[in-house]
Amino acid sequence: MTRTTAALQASEPLFEVSGSAAPLPAPGLSPQDAFIDEACRTLRLPTMRARFMELAEAARAHKYSYKQFLADLLRVECDEREVRRMMRLVRAAKFPRP
Prior knowledge:
Helix content: 55-70%
Number of strands: 0
Shape: elongated
């Protein structure tokens, strides 16, 4: 049995948030939430960082699968990036303003 399989069966995290590199959790955030927040910041996923808690609560309430939850997180990040890209392209085009 691999470590991953054993961890899943024991319902323990697959990784430990410890050591000097791990940020201290902000007040009201669990160590996992603090890690997710910092990872999203490091990976430059601003929309996912901002909406993670909201989408996690919705997923829990609607009993979404992990895949559905992950798909929702990725969808909001991709959608927001597309909006920002369009805005950036319009600004770069320097269209005349009425």
